[in-house]
Amino acid sequence: MASAARRPGRRRRGGLLLPLLCALLLLGPAGAAHIKKAEAAAPGEALRYLHSAELGEALRALAAAAPPGLARLFSIGQSVEGRPLWVLRLTAGLGPERDGEEPGGGEALPGRPQVKLVGNMHGDEPLARPLLLRLAQELVRGWAGGEERIGRLLNTTDIYLLPSLNPDGFERAREGDCGGGAEGGRENSHGRDLNRSFPDQFGVAEPDLEPVPEVQALIAWMRRNKFLLSGNLHGGSVVASYPYDDSPTHKPTGVYSKSADDEVFKYLAKAYASHHPIMRTGKPNCPGEEGETFQDGITNGAQWYDVEELTSKPVVMITEERTAK
Ligand SMILES: [Zn+2]
What we know:
30% of the residues lie in helices and 14% in strands.
């Protein structure tokens, strides 16, 4: 696949999407003050990498402490080594949990768009773990504190945060090791790259999903829901990458592969990038990729490089700073 043309592990497709993060970034002075206060109250609270059991505990505690009807924690499945794939759902007006409820955190709410953010698909790209936990904490705190914009967000958006799709890889990863590969924690415990394991919209062969229960769980969850927008947060180049990631020719790079929602995706990607102090420069100057530039800090995925897979729904992907556990 195209990424093989690049140095594996160096170029890590990623992303985070973002209507949600944009909303937070756009909170304005009041929101910024609120965030500063939270940091002062609990320095570094969510800004370290928690082991998977700790992350589960932190999510459980947050869901339990949230005001009634605001949060629901559930797992969409398990990793190869049996770790839960936690999702924290946040929106106003959730009903009580029912015994025997299908995994998925309950029914969709009429007229409320579902948005999901997925992180740590590559186990050694862990940025989303603390970031999504911190985001969840801010949303709960803002709601409980009567913050007007967060209230509006949670009254109008059904938010699902999945901080780690590859908890096994994360546990294998080592801080400072940016080499990638199965040993470094990029792949799952069957040695499979989750970000290269989805069906390909331009291909004919059905991928073998047996070794990737994490991907199976994500696909099944997506089929049970109607996510309007999604984002996927990685570590690597600092850019907002939007669909599609591949083209019919699978030319390694340079093919702009347009989705039907191209204008919307460009708008969203630009909105995110323009609020990121490094991304918006278009010159992230990442070690080893010093010459790499992105106009406005965004790129079409296939134009950047082709990846033969598709997460079956359009997503905007935003790659954040490279990090290591
Ligand atoms: Zn990645």
